[in-house]
Specification:
Length: 268
């Protein structure tokens, strides 16, 4: 399912309702709010597993079907059809996950989140996640491709978190300038194990990484997405009217970034 269905938390009670009316309490095996994926487990027998197809084989114009529960239980197990409208589509939140999506005109409504997008052979090729809505839009819906989701789901099954993902060990936000945001990334707090510890302090502003200017959190996510734990980066900081460089070594994210901090700043 989607992580947002679980409110990005393990501290929720989840009930799974099957198509035949049986209900099960579900355990949350793991969730990843960065890619909006989650894995649940129920103690049931006699279920037929779905088969994953290869979303990399999809072509624009191919027929697909969305299965889900628009508006909840009242319309549970609804199926809608459409085509693949586009591939490798970025959306407003895709920078965080370095993810691109399948675009489809198969109707997706609130309640469909986490449902299957299947091809004409009944293979799951995507996990429905979002849509663009409003009076100016019609039939612009998105699904996470299985080719990207498979490794993440396998990690959640094995470890409960996504492995080999780097983090900085800080919480941060877009820095404000007289003209709005975009002046860099303000460090709000620094964890003791962070490579910034002893080199930076809260209030410092990250302005560049490896000589490349960084203006927003989205740009930071893009840079982290192409690196691994253990990589070294040169970070340019601004403090009291001066810039200076420090060298950091990225540490591994073992689920720390999935915790929502009390100060409500994103954790990196």
């Amino acid at each position: 399912t989607n992580s947002h269905v679980l409110n990005d938390s393990r501290d929720v009670a989840v009930t799974v309702l099957l198509h035949d009316g049986r209900e099960y309490n579900a355990a949350i095996v793991g969730f990843d709010k960065i890619t909006d994926l989650a894995v649940l487990k129920i103690d049931a027998a006699g279920l037929t597993p779905a088969v994953f197809g290869d979303s990399d084989d999809l072509v624009v114009g191919e027929v697909v079907y969305a299965i889900g529960n628009p508006s909840g239980v009242q319309y549970a197990s609804s199926m809608t059809n459409g085509i693949v409208s586009g591939l490798n589509r970025p959306v407003s939140y895709s920078n965080t996950a370095n993810m691109t999506y399948i675009q489809t005109n198969a109707a997706i409504s609130p309640g469909n989140s986490g449902g299957a997008l299947v091809n004409e052979y009944g293979q799951v090729v995507g996990i429905t996640s979002s849509k663009i809505s409003g009076v100016s839009y019609e039939g612009i819906n998105f699904a996470i491709p299985t080719a990207r989701a498979k490794a993440i789901l396998d990690d959640l099954l094995t470890s409960g978190y996504v492995s080999n993902r780097p983090r900085l060990g800080i919480s941060a936000r877009n820095a404000y300038t007289p003209y709005g945001t975009g002046g860099g990334i303000e460090i709000a707090s620094i964890d003791p194990e962070s490579p910034f510890s002893g080199q930076a302090q809260p209030g410092d502003i990250i302005t560049a990484i490896d000589g490349e200017a960084v203006s927003t959190m989205d740009e930071l996510y893009q840079i982290l997405g192409v690196h691994s734990p253990g990589d070294q980066l040169t970070v340019t900081l601004y403090r009291n009217g001066q810039e200076f460089d420090i060298t950091i070594t990225l540490i591994e994210d073992r689920g720390e970034t999935q915790v929502t901090p009390e100060q409500n700043y994103p954790v990196q």
